[in-house]
Design brief:
Layout (H helix, E strand, L loop, with lengths): L7 E5 L12 H12 L5 E4 L11 H15 L5 E4 L5 H13 L4 E5 L8 H12 L6 E5 L1 H4 L5 H7 L5 E6 L4 H11 L4 E4 L5 H6 L4 E4 L6 H12 L3 H10 L1 H6 L7 H9 L16 H13 L5
Parallel strand pairs: 1-2, 1-8, 2-3, 3-4, 4-5, 5-6, 6-7, 7-8
């Protein structure tokens, strides 16, 4: 049985920006402190929600190092290091390991994609050459490719491949993966609105965008479930389901950044090619934030 990187809710942390597009480290530090005081189990830094595609290599490493230092090893820091270029993914992974990351989150190759055999060779190549546990990230809606349960079984045999962030929306496939891999592969929900269903098939938690706004609620959904209080976990999950859904009314992380600004956080906008959400969607976000008492 492999060591689980974390159990509960990991926040897929946004990267706050100044008006000129540079990283706002003052707000980033406040966000880290907010999550440490709210029960967040782990940080996922510089993933899609953290705008990894538009961060330079140096910025990526600097943001991860900042979060590592700010958390002071209180909880794991999982650094996103995936790429559709296997050699670059390894280079970035090694650099993030050197700045203190505790684990790596690696998206499947995208655009050029690959076969199921390619998944095995890609992840194995990197896992053979780093010392950190790897959590794979399967999100076909963004990448155009999907890891099959049988492929997960093969990958789970590697000692450094610890888990997957599953966001393919296919619960039957996730259940099959859980049945095939057992304790050799930890499954995390990669979709906030499927957190409870993933827990019900043996998942160990969620890597959450919504946790940027509601870290305690997302953590409590997991905590209550693992304590055996499934009814209260379900009640809380359903209570916040509307918010989880509205945070994906446009391309992530555009809605969550807009919502964080409305909630009083100085998070700025997104770098191009992402833009601001429309006025119509801003209005929908305001309605939701008001419903949950989150408007500043």
């Amino acid at each position: 049985m492999k060591k689980t990187v974390f159990t509960g809710c990991a926040v897929a942390l946004i990267t706050p920006m100044h008006e000129d597009g540079s990283v706002n480290y003052e707000t980033l530090g406040k966000l880290v402190d907010f999550h440490l005081s709210s029960g967040t189990s782990a940080f996922v830094a510089c993933a899609t929600t953290g705008e990894s595609p538009v961060l330079s290599h140096d910025e990526h490493c600097k943001v991860v190092e900042f979060i590592v230092n700010r958390t002071a090893k209180k909880v794991p820091v999982i650094a996103s290091s995936g790429s559709n270029n296997t050699a670059y993914a390894l280079e970035l992974s090694r650099d993030l390991q050197s700045v203190g990351a505790d684990a790596l989150l690696m998206i499947t190759p995208y655009y050029n994609k690959t076969s199921q055999t390619g998944f095995v060779k890609h992840f194995t190549y990197i896992a053979d050459r780093v010392d950190l546990p790897i959590i794979m990230y399967n999100i076909p809606s963004r990448t155009g490719c999907n890891i099959l349960p049988e492929t997960y079984l093969e990958l789970s045999k590697h000692p450094n491949i610890a888990g997957t962030k599953e966001a393919n929306g296919d619960l039957a496939a996730a259940a099959k993966t859980a049945a095939l891999c057992g304790d050799d592969l930890t499954i995390y929900s990669g979709e906030d609105n499927l957190t409870l269903p993933i827990l019900s098939i043996g998942g160990k938690g969620v890597i959450s965008t919504s946790a940027n706004l509601i870290p305690k609620a997302m953590s409590d959904i997991c905590r209550l479930y693992f304590q055996g209080n499934e009814a209260e976990s379900r009640k809380l999950f359903l209570e916040y389901l509307d918010l989880m859904n509205v945070l994906f009314i446009d391309v992530n992380p555009m809605p969550v950044k807009a919502a964080m600004n409305m909630a009083g956080w100085d998070c700025g906008g997104c770098r191009l090619p992402l833009t601001s959400v429309s006025e119509e969607n801003k209005a929908r976000l305001r309605v939701a934030l008001k419903k949950y008492g989150l408007l500043a």
